[in-house]
Structures are given as structure tokens and as C-alpha cells.
Amino acid sequence: MISNFTELIPGLPEELALECLTRLHYTAHRVASGVCRRWRELLHSRDFYYHRKRTGFTRKAACLVQSIPTQSESDGRKSAGSPSYALSVFDPVNGTWDRIEPVPKYPDGLPLFCQVASSEGKLVVMGGWDPVSWDPVKDMFVYEFTTRRWTQRKDMPSNRSFFAAGAVDGRVVVAGGHDESKNALNSALVYDIRNDEWTELTPMEEERDECEGIVIGSEFWVVSGYDTESQGRFKSSAESFDTETGTWKRVEDAWGVSQCPRSCVGLGKVGNLICWAESDPAVRVGACVVDLGDRTLVTGSAYQGAPHGFYLWQSGKLAKIEEEEVPDQFSGFVQSGCCVEI
User: Where is the F-box domain (predicted)?
Assistant: First the structure.
């Protein structure tokens, strides 16, 4: 890769110049890209992203679809009407919070119940309901942290809501959910971020509405969900998609019967699926979890109507959960989230 980007910094050997730029924090990439064409090509390249990842200079952050607190909520009173949602970014190392620029098509709030996934340092936002009409949308957007800009991509082939999503090797897999007529789906699709292309996959064995997606190694798991005829009765099974062979495998007794899996599925110490809503009484309602590697962000409430809490679970021998102090503007309900390695 180094030979493709010569004379990055005049007077410095190529290897040393590359390492200087590798150590730039991602928030400086947008400004650095304006220095010269060679810097811009380097900082925007896929090879450079993976170079930073191999050398340990990427940063894992939690990206959250989060309600925006209104003035009345900050005063302790409930607000009327539907909440607006925005994208928040939490850096667990520095304990800092930031908000991503609104999607240009939806300047006043994200589509309700949209899904998020991340691959190669990019954030993908897809689907959901129009925040004004509540009609299902097929929109697909990708956010580049290097340029801090949104691009609208090719729409999802069909409307689907409450589906599972996850990213593996530069592709986003979506499965299950329901269509405009509230019929549960067993169909699955894969989106190639680099080529902006959708491809239909082999369908799952069963319909799975309100399911949850989780990536385990090279497999994409669709956890629980329910059929059209059994709405609200969640399955205990899951189905895993092998991205190398393109096949599905049913996994029995992977999930607790009648437990809604949305946003709260995690991976246990022995490779089993766990429900983070049961990890602590403080997050039993509206739990949302984002796996950040050596730590896990867990959000939720102790009871319906209670303030939303934010907690970091530190893994290791002395595993413990600690409450995070959050600025008021980032204290809203978290609908869903994902880990972004920037």
C-alpha cells in the first residue's frame, strides 16, 4: 500500500509519513483531506482503513438511534406527540458524546424504527417509517465519518419493517420482518456497500417478524421472531446464515420463549445467546445493547416511564457494570444501535 502513496510529507521517508497520518484521530480526517490530493486519496481509501485497523489505530464507538429530548422532557414533564430520532455517537474510551449530522432527506428526524449497521468505518441507515406519514420507506443511506457526509444509495428492493440486520465483510444482510400488509417474512437480502447492489438470498426456513440480527464470526444470526399467524408469540429458535456457503441452519432453543429479542441480544461467555434485559434490574425495560469488544454499552430503564440509564459492562476477570454520566441532550431513549469501528 505504501508504494501507492509516495511523498506524503516532504522530507520524511514514506513509511514514517504513513505512520504519522495513521495516528490521526478520525475526527481530523475531514480537515486533513483538504491538505492535498494525495492525502485525500489516502484517507478515503479502503486500504488505509484496513492499515489503521491492523495497526490498532481504529476506534470503536457506539452509534445509537436515539430520541431527542424536548424542553419539557428536560424539565421532567412528558412531551406530547411522537419523538424525533437522531444518531448519537459515544466514544467509550474518552467518555465523549457527539451527534451525527441529520440525513438531508430527513432533516427533522430519522425514519421511525430504521435499522443501522456498520462496515469498514461507514454507517448504514436503512428502512423504517416516514416520521411524518408513518408509511414504510425503502431508503438506504451511508455516512462516511472521514468526510462527515451522507450519500443516498440504492433503495431496498421492497418495503419491510422490524427486520434483522448485520454487516459482514463489506456487506449488509437483512432478513425477516414484515411487509406493508403486516405479513411476516422469511426472505433475506444482502447489500454490497462498495458496489451499491442488492442481491436476494436463499429464504429462511421460517417467517420471523420482530427478529434481531447478530453477527457471530462469519455467520449472520436471525434470532427469534414470530409468524404471521402467531403475532407476539416469539420463537425460541434462531437461524444462522453462513456467508461463505450461502446456506441457512436452524438453531433450536437459542432464545427464551416469548422474549422479544429486539436490540437486547448478546453473546455469552460460552458462545450462547443472552438477553441483556435480564442482566440487571436497571435495564429490564427497553434494553438496547452495543458490543464494543472489551466492553459493552447497555441502555434501558428499571420500569416503564423511568429515566433511561446508560451503563458500561467491562469484560474480564473482574467483570462489572458501571453507570455512565450522560449529558442531558444525549439522555433520550435508545431505539437501536451498532458498533462502528472508525
Answer: 12-52
If one counts every other C-beta atom within 10 angstroms of the C-beta of residue 100, the result is: 18
Q: State the pTM of this model.
A: 0.89
The CATH number of whichever domain residue 194 belongs to comes to 2.120.10.80
CA dihedral 329, 332, 334, 338 (to 10 degrees): 0
Sign, CA dihedral 118-122-127-129, equals positive
Q: Has residue 25 been placed in a domain?
A: yes
> How far is CA 26 from its chain centroid?
18
- Whether 43 and 68 share a structural domain: no
Q: How many residues does the chain have?
A: 342
- pLDDT tier for residue 2 given thresholds of 50, 70 and 90: very low
31 contact partners, CB below 8 Å, separation of at least 6: none
Same domain, 121 and 244: yes
182 with 230, same domain: the answer is yes
From residue 11, how far is each of 7, 16, 40 by CA, in Å?
A: 8, 10, 19
pLDDT of residue 5: 45
Mean pLDDT value across the chain? 90
Residue 36 shares a structural domain with residue 82: no
C-alpha cell at 8: 506524503
Per-residue pLDDT reduced to its tens digit, 169-225: 889 999 999 999 999 999 999 999 999 999 999 999 999 999 999 999 999 999 999
The tally of domains found in the chain comes to: 2
Q: For CA atoms 262, 268, 274, 275, give the dihedral sign.
A: negative
Q: What is the end-to-end Cα distance of the chain in Å, rounded?
A: 19
In a domain? residue 192? yes
Looking at the DSSP assignment, which residues form a beta bridge with residue 267?
Answer: 273
Q: What is the Cα–Cα distance from 129 to 135, expressed in whole angstroms?
A: 5
> Are residues 9 and 83 both part of a single domain?
no
- Summarize the confidence of residues 123-138 as an average pLDDT: 95
> Within this chain, do residues 100 and 26 fall inside the same structural domain, yes or no?
no
Cα gap 101→147, rounded to integer Å: 11
- Which range of residues forms the domain containing residue 98? 60-262+335-341
Cα separation, 184 vs 209, whole angstroms: 5
